[in-house]
Amino acid sequence: MPDTITLQVTRYRPDADGPPTLQEYVVPLREEWAVLDGLNYIKDQLDGTLSFRWSCRMGICGSCGMTVNGDPALTCGTFLTDYAPGPVRVEPLANFPVIRDLVVEIDDFMRKLPEVKPWLVREDGEALDDVEFLQTPAEMDEYKQYSMCINCMLCYAACPVYGLEPDFLGPAAIALAQRYNLDSRDQGAHQRLDVLATAEGIWACTYVGECTTACPKGVDPAGAIQRYKLTAATRTLRSFLMPWRAR
Amino acid sequence: MADHDVVVVGGGGAGLRAAIAILQTDPRLDVAVVSKVYPMRSHTVSAEGGAAAVIAAGDTLDEHAYDTVSGSDWLSDQDAVEAFVAEAPRELLQLEHWGCPWSRMPDGEVAVRAFGGMKKMRTWFAADKTGFHLLHTLFQTSLQYEQITRYDEWYVTTLLVDENRVHGVVGIELATGRIEAITGRAVVLCTGGCGRVFPFTTNGNIKTGDGMALAYRAGAPLKDMEFVQYHPTGLPFTGILITEAARAEGGWLLNKDGYRYLQDYDLGTPSPEPVLRSMELGPRDRLSQAFVHEQEKGNTVDTPYGPVVYLDLRHLGAGVIDSKLPFVRELCLQYERIDPVHELIPVRPVQHYMMGGVHTDIDGATGLPGLYAAGEVACVSINGANRLGSNSLPELLVFGRRAGIAAAGFAATDRRGPGHAVQAQAADEHRRLERDLLARRDGRERIADVRTDMQHTMEGSAGIYRDTETLVKGADRLRELRERFGKATIEDDSRAFNTELVAALELGFMLDVAETIVACALRREESRGAHQRTDFPRRDDARLLAHSLVTRDPTGSPRVGYLPVTITRWPPGERVYGR
């Protein structure tokens, strides 16, 4: 194994002239080092002006998503040795505006998230009883995987529809809506229908499945969307046939 | 200048719980949540094992209180502990009603698991991603409150204080570099801990003690800063935490000979099944200290990233590991390339938590009117000299809520906007930051080098065991580092997402915090909980059953005094584990 590897890293400053460029840095190649360790080596030893986000470096905070050799990845859990002898190309996540270097702007997602009401809706309001709402392990299994989303944005970077249709709600937001729809304690599914069953909601998805492939946490947004299409179609049909039962 | 009723600094568990509590108290209030990261990136997300609260049949509030008080080596305030254990169950139930996916029993009731230092099974859990689920549940719940204005990715650089009262903060919007005052009638600090002061920590990159330093610089005292928790089981190199739940589910700690060495340190006798308050379910301070002794005896295994012992989960089998500890397996496979179902996990003690923090009363009020604090940044104190695992999540809920209610009440007492003095202060801070942004390009030092030296200084002088000589040396070294920091360069002159500027500001905060840790550790001439002095190996209740309180003197140096501990029902006694 060689003892160094070259990283080709996107550099971009909005307050300077010119489009993004790739800058090469040579970093130590060590068994334990993730791509993020390489970036931190650059920042601490070679070039303090490189900007990127990171925090937990254990794959749970969702900060450090970037494009590594063309694929969206959490850089804290993507190892340099897997790319040896290199070079490794590190670019910002695709489909988002770039603020600086490897930092993308995710305001669009942050705006869409509340639209799907990703909170527990109770028709009886917020009264806090002295006991929990019962939920069996089987009931929890219905939504559990959708609750594992860390909002890392890899699925948006992978989604060809989001790339072309910025109004598309997108995989994570829809999966989170389904996380609550499928929660036995929730009573808000009909409130979410208006947002989800639209041209910008589930019907925009062409079921390419790239989101599910990209997800580092085993969430299946593509499956959530397909499943919801069936729910929405059934409800729409029922509202035509039995308008008095549609909610 | 933007004005709100209450400004919450930090969007993790404590900050979001406080923000919601403010609006539950008075829905007409207007709340700002200012965070240097998007709220769901906050470090609460990394908490794994669970949240303690009495719910199970056969458990009592008194037992939770006693475990907490004895775990704290009697340095906790017992009135605060009693309020904490009484309110914790309702807070966890509230989270359940907001959708938190607590792990369940077959009948659908919430399940509880064992945890270190706890005499009963009382730790609620969401598999081993409890903090993640708790944080996302709070964040998603907070989205329905239109009265909350979020300042995501804003870095707070100072508190605005006039006539002995807090009036808001000055922050930098990271995306643009815009500097602006965000004012309010009350400020709640919920910025978490300061693990990054140390080189080897479970804490994320963002845990730089910002809130502690903000309060300290504004004149509010810090409390019990010498009490630094080392968690016994971190992965070497990364410092990633392997949750205590791994031992609660039955994991063993083995030395290089495969021997369950904790039996040699007055922690009980080994049995195949886990026994509460015994062996691997002893408290974190005692387990981390036992590791050091094993190392001294030559019973650890050397690796390129320091000596290790082993955590053995193999006998639990894939079924238990996958259902109760899936994240442990995921982390081991991804970061160590080992499978705990078949292999031993190498572990070593790792800095994890600050018992100390901004001194507050039971309602989160600091000594400075208008300033509140909750969560790891604060020191109420329920944790005293050693926090029990799974007490920190309920702590941030109980005291986040209390601080929110108190801040809402305070904000209602005086609704005047900020005066000219506050605006002038904000303008001063603006100029200071411009200078730091623009005029630091000719130094010879790198920010990263000063930071690395600070971290190693802290490990060398204020680690698991301390003594006068290393602490004095550490204090001298920190003074040198402060000088070097003053001459360090900021190469980056961009306004957009300037992470080097943030790193410099964070380092300034961390140096303040590091000095208070060393100063308090030097003054406390006894051994208690996580503070172990080899030159003063006994607990000294006659002199030091007291909180240390550190303030910044006019020269900028830490000055340490003491405050009595509140004892209600549990007089100081011996900490007994395993017998």
Description:
The complex is a heterodimer of chains A (247) and B (579). The mean pLDDT of chain A is 93. Chain A has two domains: 4-104, Ubiquitin-like (UB roll) (Roll); 107-245, Fumarate Reductase Iron-sulfur Protein, Chain B, domain 2. Chain A contains nine helices and seven strands, in the order ββαβββββαααααααα. Chain A has 247 residues and is an alpha+beta fold. In chain B, helix 1 (13-25) packs parallel to helix 4 and helix 8 packs across helix 9 (326-336). In chain B, 35% of the residues lie in helices and 19% in strands. Chain B is an alpha/beta fold. The mean pLDDT of chain B is 96. In chain B, the strands form seven sheets. In chain B, strands 7-3-2-11-19 form a five-stranded parallel β-sheet, covered by helices on one side. A five-stranded mixed β-sheet of chain B has the order 20-18-12-25-26. In chain B, strands 13, 14, 15, 16 and 17 form a five-stranded antiparallel β-sheet that branches. The longest helix of chain B is centred in the C-terminal third of the chain and has 25 residues, at 499-523. The chains are: A alpha+beta (247), B alpha/beta (579). Chains A and B meet through helix 1 and helix 3 of A and helix 3, helix 4, helix 9, helix 12 and helix 14 of B.
